[in-house]
Amino acid sequence: EKHFSAEQQLNNIKITITAGPTREAIDPVRYISNHSSGKMGFALAQAAAAMGAQVTLISGPVQLATPAGVTRIDVTTAEQMLEAALAQATQNDIFIGCAAVADYRVAQVASEKMKKTASDSIELKLVKNPDIIAAVAALTVQRPFTVGFAAETQNVVQYAKDKLTRKKLDLICANDVSGTELGFNSDHNAVTLVWQHGEQALPAQPKADLAKAIMQHIYAQFSAN
Ligand code: CTP
Ligand code: CA
């Protein structure tokens, strides 16, 4: 049993968190996105603020209220999220990438609504979006302690570890989203924290409780760094 107060533990610590999906336009009325609810990122922001941190939440389009005391920046696309993230990152101690960033965007966004054609199929050319957390982790001056998330359906810890290494992260929260009710729109979640020299499983629990546990681990590793 640890006997310390979570309250105010993060006093004077500045944290940026990305949350939710990004949305990539196809034309003025259509887009590509994903099922991220933003709940995990918002829960992390709430937990960090309750622990005394100064929290900036960069959010894609979600249906969630801003946690008390948190500064929120709303964005739509991955490119907008990258710009906001880089502007915040160098002013912060810890950066947590919880957003489900669209991996690709439409190469040429149509300026007018696309009309249905006589053809039975059409093709959309997609181009890769920038990797936001890798860009933050690659900063050479004022680089924050950088934490990623990985939602996987198989080989969860191994794939997460690959991402940790490839993106040069300090810590990654691996999330098993295979055939369970966990993750995405659920109010419960379980993760395994993975870092270069270890891992720790955090059991399924309400996202608010899990968020506190994750923040405590992040802070412990940030402090030890
Ligand atoms: N991420 C990011 N920018 C991207 C894609 C992902 O910042 N363009 C971040 C996510 O916020 C998360 C981590 O990278 O913290 C892992 O996201 P994930 O989608 O699992 O990684 P990808 O590299 O996109 O790999 P995958 O092929 O599994 O989607
Ligand atoms: Ca991805």
Percentage of residues assigned to helices:
25-40%
Please state the average pLDDT score. Answer: 93
Please provide the count of β strands: 12
Sheet with most strands: strand arrangement: 5-4-1-6-9-10-11-12
User: Which class do the helix and strand fractions yield?
Assistant: alpha/beta
**Rg, please?**
18 Å
Strand proportion = 25-35%
SSE ordering: EEEHEEHEEEHEHEEEH
SSE layout and pairing:
Elements: E1 14-19, E2 24-27, E3 30-32, H1 39-50, E4 54-59, E5 71-74, H2 78-89, E6 94-97, E7 104-106, E8 126-128, H3 132-137, E9 145-152, H4 156-166, E10 171-176, E11 188-195, E12 198-206, H5 207-224
Parallel strand pairs: 1-4, 1-6, 4-5, 6-9, 9-10
Antiparallel strand pairs: 2-3, 7-8, 10-11, 11-12
Helix pairs in contact: 1-5
Describe the structure.
By secondary structure, this protein is an alpha/beta fold. 26% of the residues lie in helices and 28% in strands. It has helices at residues 39-50, 78-89, 132-137, 156-166, 207-224, and strands spanning 14-19, 24-27, 30-32, 54-59, 71-74, 94-97, 104-106, 126-128, 145-152, 171-176, 188-195, 198-206. The chain has an 8-stranded mixed beta sheet, with helices on both faces. It has a two-stranded antiparallel sheet with strand order 2-3. A two-stranded antiparallel ribbon has the order 7-8. α1 (39-50) crosses α5. The longest helix is centred in the C-terminal third of the chain and has 18 residues, at 207-224. It is globular. Cytidine-5'-triphosphate binds at residues 18, 78, 97, 99, 101, 103, 129, 131-133, 148-151, 163.
